[in-house]
UniProtKB/TrEMBL annotation:
This is Purine nucleoside phosphorylase. Transmembrane segments: none annotated. Belongs to the purine nucleoside phosphorylase YfiH/LACC1 family. NCBIfam families: peptidoglycan editing factor PgeF. Keywords: Hydrolase, Metal-binding, Transferase, Zinc. It comes from the Bacteria. GO terms for molecular function: copper ion binding; hydrolase activity; S-methyl-5-thioadenosine phosphorylase activity. The gene is pgeF. It catalyses: adenosine + H2O + H(+) = inosine + NH4(+); S-methyl-5'-thioadenosine + phosphate = 5-(methylsulfanyl)-alpha-D-ribose 1-phosphate + adenine; inosine + phosphate = alpha-D-ribose 1-phosphate + hypoxanthine; adenosine + phosphate = alpha-D-ribose 1-phosphate + adenine. Purine nucleoside enzyme that catalyzes the phosphorolysis of adenosine and inosine nucleosides, yielding D-ribose 1-phosphate and the respective free bases, adenine and hypoxanthine. Also catalyzes the phosphorolysis of S-methyl-5'-thioadenosine into adenine and S-methyl-5-thio-alpha-D-ribose 1-phosphate. Also has adenosine deaminase activity. SUPFAM superfamilies: CNF1/YfiH-like putative cysteine hydrolases. Pfam families: Cu-oxidase_4 (PF02578).
Amino acid sequence: MTNNFYKICAANGAWFYKNEILERTGLVNHAFSTRIGGVSEGAYSSLNLGVNSKDEKQNVLSNFQLFSEAIGIQTEKMVLSNQVHDDKIRIVTKADCGKGVLLNSDIKGIDALITAESGVALATFYADCTPVLIVDLQKKVIASVHSGWRGTLLKITQKTVLKMTREFGCDPKDMVCAIGPSIKQCHFEVGKEVYDQFVNVFGQPAADNTIQKNGKYYVNTDALNVDALAACGVPLENISVCPLCTFCHNDVFYSHRGDGGITGRMCAVIELR
Ligand SMILES: [Zn+2]
């Protein structure tokens, strides 16, 4: 398990992060957006990519253009998820490109996207929840997974790996995974009832990866996602975890908790070259 994330400040002012391990595969273009370098104002300032937020629609579209230009992935190629903190996964193709931002979408209630086609950019959205990007190096299949705490409890990341295995003959040992910026253990405070759910699902590793302080519980969901990936056979050295906390670095990232609930959304996107 490694870090390997680095920041890029694009010429047009948009900031985003990349992961060295994904980049080294030479197979994909990918990015994790930030809130820096867009046109939105107020609570949405400034690179808000949340199509379902109450921000001005035109500003969100302008932000998509800025982000697309910065990362070199056309908005027309993006397929957007419509996340509901569940564990439904959809395989998408070129026929789905543009859905959710430029075109109407029939992709509803989907928290993870998979494709084996190049030129299809899988986009999932965040403001504290955990983005996980996955590449199978041999079969050339990719996935973008939205794993908030509910998704983590449902093991959506592991389910996505298993679906890639089942549907495309992928082998987890050939996969590399990047877990992006999200709310980290320092600020992921939950009550006993949520902590108990983590222990029910993950057992001892949940207890081992939780700090108790003043009657509250701080769960390391990254560690549990890594456990779930390793349990299905992804080599630990192929899993990269971004240490940046969206709440701690609220000036760079949208944070649902840090911004008091009204905020924009960042995007994690990946495309096979
Ligand atoms: Zn923090």
